[in-house]
Design goal:
Blueprint lengths: L8 H35 L6 H24 L3 H17 L19 H13 L8 H11 L10 H8 L4 H9 L14 H6 L1 H7 L1
Length: 204
Amino acid sequence: MQSERPIEWSHLEQRIVKAIRRVSRAEKRQVRRYRQKLEDQKHRPAYSTRRQLIEEQANEAREAAEFKFGKYMQATQGDVRHFFRRIANWQRDQTISRLEPTPGRYHPSNVSLADIMGAEWHQITGQSHATVPPHKAEQRFDALVYIPETRKVTEAQNQDLMAPITEKEVREAIAALHRNKAGGVDSLNNDFYKDCEDVMVEVL
């Protein structure tokens, strides 16, 4: 008995071919995943102790830091813009941008900070700071600024602080650095100083 809706063999054949191809691709993907898993297990080191695991994590962190430093060596425009913005913000925070006048005084906006400082100094002390003798300046400083005895620097301590920095002190300072810390304004983190200690000691 002939069907009322005859089968279009060409269309059915195309559907069968597409189904076979889908199954074949799925099997190939599964084989690739299985092989990749075996390769990963073969190359992955076996950690028998917690110390080995910690060392491997430290090595991975160092490699990541080296990669990050290499990225800064070939920085994009965005990286350069971010770097200079951070430097500008740091300099702005370390700079005196405004001086409040004493009550009853006014300074025009075109007056420099140095002139404002000189005028205020003259108002407070009654004389210009350029004409104050050194011993008078020390007396004024002691009168205006109080420093506890425990925080005062003696002459012997001052000589030690002003002495040239030795190579031993630089190496001790680098040895005291902790790894995996963010870089400073120069984008050099502690890992760079520790890994390049011999070179940085000569520079510093």
